[in-house]
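Input chain follows. Return structure tokens only.
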Amino acid sequence: MTTATETLLPGTDIVLEQLPKVSLHDHLDGGLRPQTIIDLAAGIGLELPASTAEELGAWFAEKSNSGSLVEYLKTFDITTAVMQTAEGLRRVAHEFVLDLAADGVIWGEIRWAPEQHQQKGLSLDEAVEAVQAGLDDGVAEARADGRTIRVGQLISAMRHADRGLEIAELAVRHRHAGVVGFDIAGAEAGFPAGRMRDAFDHLAQSFFPATVHAGEADGLDSIRGALLDGRALRLGHGVRLAEDIEISTENGTSYARLGELAEWIKDRRICLETSPSSNLQTGAIAQWGDEMVDHPLDLFYQLGFLVTVNTDNRLMSGTTLSRELALVSDAFGYDLDDVLTLQLNAASAAFLSVDDRETLTDAIIAGFEPFLDAEDAR
């Protein structure tokens, strides 16, 4: 029998929370606990659409199932509103780490946009420092409870604003104090990576890694821009790259022809940070269908792309990384070896040093081995 915090790998008795995992695409303002929102809202007089944690969680899930990224993003008005003080940011970051650790995450990259947290007078640096203090609190508490976890901040610049260079400089300034990478987020269509070319130039000159949201609410041109203008090492979501893959069938056998863009991304091992539930909610995969089995994740996986599974926003999708892995395993018939491959993919794409990536890879393999041995013995 499972508890409310246990998610089984379909067809097995393996509890996915017990497996070591890597989370590459997880937004700080999309992972708040509903009760925390209620507590913080009371302190600032913010009116909420629900009065209990259960009802508020259900409200977020309902509002996030719009099929539109623009509508989906409106739910963040509430979460960011309670994250405008150092105390609020520190608490949210602290709990964020604890929730990742409880899910078995051993390396987590936590992305957020400091420019959205200055309404109460925090400077950009103060906001980053507050979040880092919370992350450190969470790591220390998790380790005291016997859990192993490390985390890093991904600093995001909002695509529609004109603060890209300022935010890139902020990220680089904190590279030795918890920040491991840069991102651009927000409304994708109409706001290409090229608008922030100066920011990406600064990052490149500083040898600082970037991931770019691309191929979620816009198509192949957005992905090209992420690579050419953004020098992206990873693509946030990237699911519409499937538009550059042509499938044909001959004598009952399916063949895939990759366009130049898809071929480049595959051959250069540029990571795709898919977030299956979120991609369904925002309509990112609408041209292929509206069920998990329609997600191009499996196409990428079967063709050998460096594809990963992520949560995007755990509050809005009512999910965890374990749940996402269970959903895709159920949809595509993945077994424990496939789940391991997905985690090794994520480890290889982490914004860590080569030595740290190798250590992370070893930890994942060691954590999976007892379960693989048990499966082999059956």
